[in-house]
Design brief:
The protein is mainly alpha-helical. The chain is built from two helices and no strands. The protein is elongated. It starts with a helix and ends with a helix. The model has no long low-confidence stretch (mean pLDDT about 85).
Length: about 90
Amino acid sequence: MTTPISGLLMEAGNLLLVGMGFVFVFLTILIFAVNALKAFCERFPGQEPQAPARASGTKATSTVAADTNVIAAISAAVHAHRNAKNK
């Protein structure tokens, strides 16, 4: 006849083996799935993102002028806000 403690130890050992076996099988399947995904991605690479086309030189000049005007307007607004805040 087994004592109650040895029965509990046997049950704990079974749970340990089942749990570790499950984790081992799961991780093994996960490794194979990651390797399969890697092989798939190497075989069928996606398209590289294309750089946007640059604007012509005349448009770039007007954009720079517009940017300068925007910067000047923002600077004036900040300056006016700071002056109004101090008064």
